[in-house]
Design goal:
There is one protein chain. This protein is of the alpha/beta class. It folds into 2 domains: 221 residues, P-loop containing nucleotide triphosphate hydrolases (Rossmann fold); 96 residues, 2-Layer Sandwich (Alpha-Beta Plaits), CATH 3.30.70.250. It has a 6-stranded mixed sheet, sandwiched between helices. Helix 3 packs parallel to helix 5. The protein is globular, with a radius of gyration of 23 Å.
């Protein structure tokens, strides 16, 4: 099914994957619209890569249903593989081949028609800004160029859906920004982009996010919605000297759920905002900290994610005690 023929590119219902007694993905449900940039956010081991492997037709689900590009992930995995692009965490191109040789190799893998191979190769080289390096060995390229080349090879066959698994891990900030410009271009042309990331600033670039923790989808929605509607607690921003030492003191104060470094200051999460604000204003100077300012601020995605995870852990703790 072409992307123009349906508004939903990816859809799963109660998707589950077990490895023996271990539940890697626990009955998650979501959908992704055609042309959308959908971010999958979660810590290592949360189930992000396992989910992607099921959606790509590489790993069979234990339970649940789903479709990708109109094909069933259980009964039509081979069809799915012809309609998607996939870029893994680990750089997957051949470093002992030149840029052009890698592109030629993947053109053959994707069975691109002979009359289109040159056009698609030139598109990748231009897109990846590798015109002057087309004859260079891939192994000598800077990491940012490698990632753009890998993205180009993943979309050589013009798939309607692409899966990017931690695509900018280890890449410098400027190259990451350039990579995301390319993602925007692809999305603007109607390509659906499903991307996993642990960078909070990258998550802000997505149209919608799914937050996954211990195999469960604990929240989903646009970044702004998550920050404004799902954050139960107040956030205070503290700017003072010796922030590392101050963080330890603040974390132990009554009413404080979380204290973490945030830029040059601290973010303090609390469900008693006004009281904790007054306590901080009194306690920090009394303990010898020079306070520049303490003020309520809008929650960041990191604040939201930490809050949701801690709330989930608190909800599950009584169940763990019962099981013991």
């Amino acid at each position: 099914m072409d992307k123009e023929q349906g508004k939903t590119a990816v859809s799963v219902e109660n998707l589950e994957r077990r490895f023996g007694d271990f539940v890697a993905v626990d009955r998650i449900s979501f959908s992704v619209a055609s042309g959308e940039i959908f971010g999958f956010l979660g810590p290592n081991g949360a189930g992000k890569s396992t989910t992607i492997r099921m959606l790509c037709g590489i790993l069979a689900p234990t339970g649940g249903t789903g479709t990708v590009a109109g094909f069933d992930i259980r009964s039509q995995p081979e069809f799915i593989k012809t309609r998607i692009g996939y870029m893994s965490q680990k750089f997957s191109l051949y470093e002992d081949l030149t840029v052009e040789e890698n592109i030629n190799f993947y053109s053959g893998i994707y069975r691109i028609p002979a009359n289109r191979k040159r056009e698609r190769k030139e598109w990748v080289i231009e897109m990846a800004d590798l015109t002057e390096h087309r004859s260079s060995l891939t192994g000598v390229l800077a990491s940012g160029w490698k990632q753009r080349l890998a993205l180009g090879c993943a979309v050589l066959h013009e798939p309607p859906v692409i899966f990017l698994d931690e695509p900018t891990s280890g890449v410098d900030p400027v190259s990451r920004r350039r990579f995301w410009d390319l993602i925007y271009e692809l999305s603007g042309s109607g390509v659906t982009v499903f991307v996993t990331t642990h960078y909070m600033d990258e998550a802000e670039y997505c149209d919608r996010l799914g937050l996954i923790y211990r195999g469960e989808l604990i929240a989903s929605g646009a970044p702004e919605k998550l920050k404004t509607e799902l954050m139960r607690e107040d956030v205070l921003e503290v700017h003072c000297d010796k922030p590392h030492e101050a963080m330890e003191l603040i974390a132990a104060m009554p009413g404080v759920k979380e204290a973490a470094l945030f830029g040059r200051g601290l973010h303090v999460v609390t469900d008693k905002g006004e009281q904790v604000l007054r306590d901080l204003q009194a306690t920090l100077p009394a303990k010898g900290f020079a306070v520049e300012r303490i003020e309520p601020v809008a929650a960041s995605l990191e604040d939201v994610f930490v809050s949701l995870v801690e709330n989930r852990d608190r909800e599950e703790e009584p169940q763990r005690e019962v099981r013991r």
